[in-house]
Design brief:
Layout lengths: L1 H11 L6 H9 L1 H11 L6 H8 L3 H13 L5 H15 L1
Helix pairs in contact: 1-2, 3-6
Amino acid sequence: MEIAEAVKRSAFEPGWHTPERQTVFHTAFNAWASYDAHIFGYRVSGTVVCHVTGLSPWQLCQLFGEMIDAGITNVGQGERFFNQMRTRVS
């Protein structure tokens, strides 16, 4: 997903984006880190992995926004977020 790549680059490659985009994408870094660890690392339910990997880019941005709004600041909180998601997507 291009959006996930853009978020990752904002954290690891300063100057890749304009300063405005850098700020926006950097805000989503903790959501991306949880997404990367738990979805691509298959650390959560297969049902959640299947659901999240099937999201459109727009829906993925919405998911990152939900995670930001939920106050996800580390991968452990992201794990709890995805585990709670399981009841909504089953």
